[in-house]
Specification:
Layout: H1 3-22, H2 31-54, H3 57-70, H4 75-80, E1 88-89, E2 95-99, H5 104-109, H6 116-127, E3 136-139, H7 159-176, E4 180-184, H8 186-193, H9 199-202, E5 206-209, E6 212-217, H10 220-225, H11 229-245, H12 252-255
Parallel strand pairs: 2-3, 2-4, 4-6
Antiparallel strand pairs: 1-3, 5-6
Helix pairs in contact: 3-7
């Protein structure tokens, strides 16, 4: 006999005893009515658990952002960060860009891709006929990787740092449900897929992440260091693949961007 059955039997026995002591009829509670009452409990718990999925995406992202702000899994990053950098853009976006980690500018402002590389990414998005409000932008790592005090620049995130932070990105992607993911740079691809290949071998190829098509391309900071027309064209060809997959209109002018004269 289960603990629930035992409790039901004891309750019935107690009620019978009470009726006999009082010597008059009392409202009865049957085994069937008690079992019907207990059967409603799983349904109630299920209804409560479904509330999360029924919440607007913006509210679910806001709740996740609060969890990210409180995270201290990487104590050294929590101690050195100005603030976490969660993500920005359209919660219903079809296209989501994923970088590796916030840099100095992002750490100060609390938004991804707001420095020089972010300005170039904005230009790329604009050339696609979109705005930053149409897409969603995030990083694998939500904290700026710490640097020795007084050291300029930024460092790539360590594999363990990305591993600890990846569940937050997974949940972001699960909430937004983009049709296309674009990984910006080798480190972002390593964080998403575990691949450790040269970017030149991965760019322009389709992969998958959580059953979502994933395209690898160069990080905008690479183009800032190597801004040759041929390298810009490679990134633009990758964006044309994205536009085609999203069925976005592509003009002849757009198809010709950064094409060198033959």
């Amino acid at each position: 006999m289960s603990s629930l059955q035992e409790a039901t039997a004891l309750l019935e026995q107690s009620l019978r005893t009470r009726r006999s002591l009082l010597g008059r009829t009392r409202p009865s509670v049957t085994r069937d009515s008690l079992e019907r009452l207990t059967e409603t409990r799983p349904r109630q718990r299920s209804e409560i658990s479904n509330l999360k999925s029924e919440m607007p995406r913006s509210a679910r992202l806001a709740a996740l952002n609060e969890a990210v702000r409180a995270c201290r899994q990487c104590e050294h990053l929590a101690a050195s960060r100005t603030q976490t950098v969660f993500g920005a853009g359209n919660p219903d976006a079809d296209l989501m860009f994923v970088g590796e980690a916030p840099g100095f500018d992002e750490d100060k402002k609390g938004e991804p891709f707001v420095g020089p590389a972010g300005e170039l990414l904005t230009k790329i998005i604009t050339a696609m006929g979109l705005t930053r409000d149409d897409v969603y932008i995030a990083n694998v790592l939500k904290c700026r990787p710490d640097m020795p005090k007084g050291s300029p620049g930024n460092r790539p995130p360590e594999p363990l740092e990305m591993q600890r932070c990846l569940p937050y990105l997974r949940e972001q992607i699960a909430i937004i449900q983009p049709r296309i993911l674009v990984a910006l740079g080798k480190t972002a691809m390593a964080g998403l897929t575990g691949r450790d290949e040269a970017m030149g071998a991965m760019r322009g190829r389709w992969f998958t992440f959580e059953n979502i098509p994933l395209l690898a391309t160069y990080h905008p900071s690479y183009l800032l260091r190597n801004g040759s027309m041929s390298e810009k064209r490679k990134v633009w060809e990758d964006m044309l693949l994205v536009m085609e997959k999203l069925s976005l209109p592509i003009s002849e002018k757009q198809r010709g961007f950064f094409r060198t004269a033959s």
